[in-house]
Backbone:
């Protein structure tokens, strides 16, 4: 009879927590897509390639997909969704669906559903092996880019985060960098390293080929008039 294996429980419990490249990833909301507007049960989703907010294309669903890939690649386990409800969104969906969720709440809910669905798919479920459970949170205090950045850094300072990533669409990253450099006060940024990630670029880099054609047509202003409008 083989000797019993002795397990040092104290040693197990004293192991340091796993270190990630990013203490947290923050996903900025980007409006909604309304499905079944004329039905008895209209439903909201993150905006997709068909959606336009009057200022150009949106494609918010790419942000959730990139955040999931960051988790699957072992870059973080903490994902925050950021965004309230702007007056623009209230006006856009007035009389179409009620009540309206915040962007953060809706994107978080759909992210959870996307994650759970992928766990059930044979082609993807093994990618979750060995990963720590996700920690998700919705930050709903602001409804514009500047306010969202303030929310992100206030939350990061409160939690003592040192390395964070902010996920948005490629078309939005330049504006975020300018706002970070010139609009946010230095004290709120102190001791926090930030990486701004363009969702489409990250998706193409980590899962090459799967969405390249879709992203190409989405980002090309000659093929997508709404992207042309966004970049004007």
Residues:
């Amino acid at each position: 009879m083989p000797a019993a294996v002795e397990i040092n429980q104290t040693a197990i419990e004293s192991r340091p927590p796993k270190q990630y490249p990013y203490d947290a990833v923050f996903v900025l909301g980007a409006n909604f897509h309304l499905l079944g507007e004329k039905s008895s049960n209209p439903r909201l989703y993150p905006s997709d390639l068909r959606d336009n907010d009057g200022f150009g294309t949106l494609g918010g669903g790419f942000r959730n997909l990139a955040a999931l890939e960051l988790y699957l690649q072992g870059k973080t386990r903490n994902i925050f969704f950021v965004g309230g409800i702007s007056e623009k969104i209230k006006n856009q969906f007035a009389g179409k669906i009620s009540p309206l969720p915040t962007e953060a709440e809706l994107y978080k809910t759909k992210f959870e559903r996307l994650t759970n669905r992928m766990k059930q798919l044979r082609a993807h479920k093994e990618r979750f092996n060995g990963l720590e459970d996700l920690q998700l949170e919705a930050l709903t205090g602001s409804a514009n880019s500047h306010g969202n950045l303030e929310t992100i850094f206030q939350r990061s300072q409160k939690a003592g985060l040192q390395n964070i990533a902010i996920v948005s669409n490629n078309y939005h990253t330049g504006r975020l960098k300018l706002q970070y450099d010139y609009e946010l006060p230095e004290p709120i940024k102190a001791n926090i390293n930030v990486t701004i990630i363009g969702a489409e670029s990250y998706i193409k880099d980590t899962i090459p080929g799967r969405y390249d054609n879709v992203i190409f047509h989405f980002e090309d202003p000659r093929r997508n008039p709404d992207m042309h409008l966004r970049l004007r």
